[in-house]
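Hi all, a correction to my earlier message: I attached the wrong file for Putative GNAT superfamily acetyltransferase. Here's the right sequence:
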Amino acid sequence: MSVQVRTVTGLAELAVVDRLFGEIWQGDPGSPVLSVELLRALAKAGNYVAGAYDGDRLLGACVGFFGAPVDRELHSHIAGVAPAAAGRHIGYALKQHQRTWALERGATAISWTYDPLVARNAYFNLAKLGAVPHEYLPDFYGAMHDRINGDDASDRLLVRWDLHRPAPGREDLDGAVVALDRSGTPGSLAGGKLLVAVPQDIEALRAHDPGAAKQWRLAVRDTLSTLLAAGARITGFDRAGWYVLRRPS
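and the right structure:
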């Protein structure tokens, strides 16, 4: 993969980052998600603004800022990859660069939020990187009305990536109880190990059947929130599309 990931500070390059985010989330490079001014301020203040380049071509970008405790945890606010670069592992390269950058500055963890219904992101965050969910946040950003989120509620899982934690192993699903099945139907909440399904492709479902997408949103929200409130922990995400939860022994 002939891709270089590096930090971005110059106005011209920051403007390209801004246009890339607009293209990904709004379908229009001229509709910014952040702004060049904000990106410039974040970079100048010592925060993380980086891009993945193939030569001079920007393929992906990521932006993060430090949160409390100061200089110990980086919050990764936004990361995106150009649709044309899908399948080139740009997202993984960005995260590994961000990890190295954070460690060099004394940080021990990176946190971020993601939509719990997006199966590929859940697998990437939990199974591939080893981030750990800490909190379910209903409609965290309010109405977003962009190309990706549409009119769906902006529920998010807040995850924390311990930068010294080894990569997780594959989850063992033997003996697990299905709390929400693949049709979105609630099952049993009893058991020490539980499975919660998500749609195979929530973004396609939002486009073709927004009513069904909203039903999935409510079902996953209710199931995960109930289990987390009862003390269960999300320990991983299986490639087949299941959140794996365990109750404390």
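Sorry for the mix-up. The CA atoms of residues 105 and 198 lie 37 Å apart.
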